[in-house]
């Protein structure tokens, strides 16, 4: 599958790149970002996938979080796809910030007219990893996944449906039916997050489900932090380290 390079920038000794390709699953052009650490020049590195939240593109994480310094230090290739198909000309896809464009939710749609293009689950778990494995110096046996907001939910869905595929998980969502291999979950939550205070996130429900299934989870409620990329940038290094301890083991 042909890749078109959109940009390339030197960053912490590595390269932050953006590519475009024609997606088979989504039937549209898609962009993804990939950070290649200095270690990728001499050998294969682990692959860490980041899933962004509502309204984001591949640009938000790579330009606002500052993850590249930690990724360079630990030798991780970090991949950040866009959050939805774009330009599909489906009626209503641009009407709301939380449904349609920029809001693919990392699931496969089952209803018309969405099911032809909105197949983000298959894209991030099958098509994109195959593309990355074929074109970049990554070790397909060392993969991990994390995300924020809608992407945190998506990361855990991907992990729970594919036991053993990802080495560590960092998300907030359903775990009650999980019966796969041992997982290690790290969650940071801003205490001043407006989505927490209005009852949309419900981390207590997730923690209770983990407790019932005897799945270890570290949940850190961060005083004074909200839902923004200022919050992400503050704690992203901890999460890179969390994944690196498994990917580099």
TrEMBL record:
Q: In the Enzyme Commission scheme, what number(s) does this protein have?
A: 3.1.2.12
Instruction: Reply yes or no: does the keyword NADP apply.
Output: no
Keywords for the protein's UniProt record, in alphabetical order:
Hydrolase, Serine esterase
Q: Does the keyword Aminoacyl-tRNA synthetase apply?
A: no
List the molecular function annotations (GO) for this entry.
carboxylic ester hydrolase activity; S-formylglutathione hydrolase activity
Provide a GO CC annotation, any one. Answer: cytosol
Q: Name one Pfam family in it.
A: Esterase
Residues of the active site are 149, 193, 227
Task: Give any single GO term for biological process.
Answer: formaldehyde catabolic process
Top-rank taxon of the source lineage equals: Eukaryota
Q: Please report which protein family the annotation says this sequence is part of.
A: Belongs to the esterase D family.
Role summary: Serine hydrolase involved in the detoxification of formaldehyde.
Instruction: Tell me which PANTHER family the record gives.
Output: S-FORMYLGLUTATHIONE HYDROLASE (PTHR10061)
Spell out the protein name for this chain: S-formylglutathione hydrolase
């Amino acid at each position: 599958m042909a890749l078109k390079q959109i940009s390339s920038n030197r960053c912490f000794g590595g390269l932050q790149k953006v590519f475009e390709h024609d997606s088979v699953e989504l039937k549209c052009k898609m962009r993804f970002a990939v950070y290649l650490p200095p270690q990728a020049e001499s050998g294969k590195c682990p692959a860490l996938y980041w899933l962004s939240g509502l309204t984001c593109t591949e640009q938000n994480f790579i330009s606002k979080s500052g993850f590249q310094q930690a990724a360079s230090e630990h030798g991780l290739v970090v991949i950040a796809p866009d959050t939805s198909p774009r330009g599909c000309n489906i009626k209503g896809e641009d009407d709301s910030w939380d449904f349609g464009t920029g809001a693919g939710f990392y699931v496969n749609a089952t209803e018309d007219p969405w099911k032809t293009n909105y197949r983000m689950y298959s894209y991030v778990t099958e098509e994109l990893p195959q593309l990355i494995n074929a074109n970049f110096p990554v070790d397909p046996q060392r993969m991990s996944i994390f995300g924020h907001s809608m992407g945190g939910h998506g990361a855990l869905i991907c992990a729970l449906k594919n036991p053993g595929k990802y080495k560590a998980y960092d998300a907030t969502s359903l775990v009650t039916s999980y019966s796969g291999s041992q997982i290690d979950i790290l969650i940071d939550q801003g205490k001043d997050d407006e989505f927490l205070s209005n009852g949309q996130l419900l981390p207590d429900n997730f923690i209770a489900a983990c407790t019932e299934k005897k799945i270890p989870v570290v949940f850190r409620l961060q005083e004074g932090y909200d839902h923004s990329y200022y919050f992400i940038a503050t704690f992203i290094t901890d999460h890179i380290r969390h994944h690196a301890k498994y990917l580099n083991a």
